[in-house]
Amino acid sequence: MRVLALLDGTLADPEAPLIRVDDLGLVRGDGVFETILVVDGAPREQGPHLDRLARSAAMLDLPEPDRAAFERAIGLVLDNWTGGREIALKLVHTRGVEGGDGTPTGFALGADISPKVIRQRAEGIAAVTLDRGVEPGLMQRAPWLLLSAKSLSYAVNMAALREAERRGAAEVVFTTPSGSVLEGPTSTLVMVRDRVLTTPPADLGILPGTTQAALFRAAEREGWTTEVAPIAADDLYSADGVFLVSSVRKITRVHTLDGKALPDSTGLHAALDALYESEY
Amino acid sequence: MRVLALLDGTLADPEAPLIRVDDLGLVRGDGVFETILVVDGAPREQGPHLDRLARSAAMLDLPEPDRAAFERAIGLVLDNWTGGREIALKLVHTRGVEGGDGTPTGFALGADISPKVIRQRAEGIAAVTLDRGVEPGLMQRAPWLLLSAKSLSYAVNMAALREAERRGAAEVVFTTPSGSVLEGPTSTLVMVRDRVLTTPPADLGILPGTTQAALFRAAEREGWTTEVAPIAADDLYSADGVFLVSSVRKITRVHTLDGKALPDSTGLHAALDALYESEY
């Protein structure tokens, strides 16, 4: 099932054309997005997602997203949802049409979570490491590379996932050329060792994770230690657990990395999942 | 004026919505494009542009563009054009809608050349060098970075142009971290010294230029020397001329680089422009 809400407070048919061919979101990937998980009618981390949408928009020099209009569109999707318990709710904000008056294009689209993602949450995934060609410090030196913006220009992220499939895996852990862990194409990496949760620093040029932040908040409250620190890809093999986390995939366990089995983290996964769910 | 032709051989209103909100070209920048210059009803380098569209599509594992359908759409735009002498004719080919049957989305959109580009062709431009963070060899090592594909994920290219504007310039010369010249965000760089035309090698991770290829073909026929070789950014200052070339901008002279005036290349520009025009 899908429900599409526009920023003017109306619903639209998700299968009908809505976007012009000269929308800069289409022809230049010139826009930003967020995906919010909704469970039993309650959006998770809606505030942080809207904050990050605004942050990404600022990095692209886009007009500020109309927060109240997006909130209304989210409510409209929820009010009209008659599908399953969970919704992947995507917010899109583009620069609008080329040569236009600068009015951005925006919408909120609710959709079912794919069965593949549901299965991966339960069973875990195989991942491969792929070089993203980005050394530490580049983000600060070259902000025009938009390294930590959640833009619509995701062709590389999609190409990396296809490369993973070619290698018999479902997911990617991007690394620097020197082998430092970055993130997944649409997720944040969290490593656990001796009850310490570690995630790489956003200033490496990666997206600050909303789900990772929620997990860390819950973990800290329950007496776990959390840290934001560089992770060498080689260290993943000896960790107690490696997880790719995002709104839609929640806490997904990596059971195999570059074809090599990781230590069994089934129990740890259950503990982290309970921590994360305790936030809601 | 604008004319929009679809791949089924029909015309459509360019100001009416045509694209669904779940088109992967929009939500993932997952598609490819070309822009062909049409002068007095004649498309320039149509074959090489269609070849490159197919090459970019293959790099993104997209279905092969339907060449005959694109050729028909191009013809349809030309047949229905009642505007000025020149058309910027954009071809777009996306992965189609998410979770669909794999049918790509495609269209051809003809539009007037912007007055700014026309003026820049005559007057030249100021450019700035910006680091693209990509070292030589990365394209071969990490093909998933799509470094020489003309994809719809152009947010970085657009951000670089805005950075140039902030620095009082109109264009960008992307460089490697170690200062080797790459390309412009939507153009190819050609340097001229002692009647030798030089452009950087595509295997640095840049787009092979259709207009640059046409210019080199014409130059070779007229006894100039051409070469494909690395260019150090510092060498641009002492060249006889530095040009950014593309279908729409033709041969545009760079008169200022990083705020420093380059040697006057007005005469050289006229010679190259005549060479290029002699191809048609």
Automatic annotation (TrEMBL), chains A, B:
Q: Which top-rank group of organisms is this from?
A: Bacteria
According to the UniProt record, one GO cellular component term is: cytosol
Q: Which Gene3D superfamilies match?
A: 3.30.470.10, D-amino Acid Aminotransferase, subunit A, domain 2
EC id: 4.1.3.38
* GO BP terms: carboxylic acid biosynthetic process
What Gene Ontology terms describe what this protein does at the molecular function level? 4-amino-4-deoxychorismate lyase activity
Alphabetized UniProt keyword annotations: Lyase
Q: What is this protein called?
A: Aminodeoxychorismate lyase
Please give the organism: Saccharothrix syringae
Organism lineage: Bacteria, Bacillati, Actinomycetota, Actinomycetes, Pseudonocardiales
